Fold:
Amino acid sequence: MFPDPGQQAAQRAAQRGAEQSARQAAQDGMRAAQAGARRGNSRSGGGLLSFLLLVAVVVLVARDPELWASVLHFVHHVVNVVQNRADGS
Structure:
């Protein structure tokens, strides 16, 4: 009848791990995209790798609505930071 506290803790830990993995993948993808932009995208494989990384993150995140909301919040934050830096330059 009552949820198992150990199971709930494991689910929360798994969710935090998935959120951290998604954030890390997004950050890695952003770094790769920024590095590609600085290089002038001299290699076409870099664009494909970034695209595949983005698809993998979306598939991972789409399975969990809470994680999806967390990632969207993170993406909005990143967009705001980038816009603020662009406005400041």
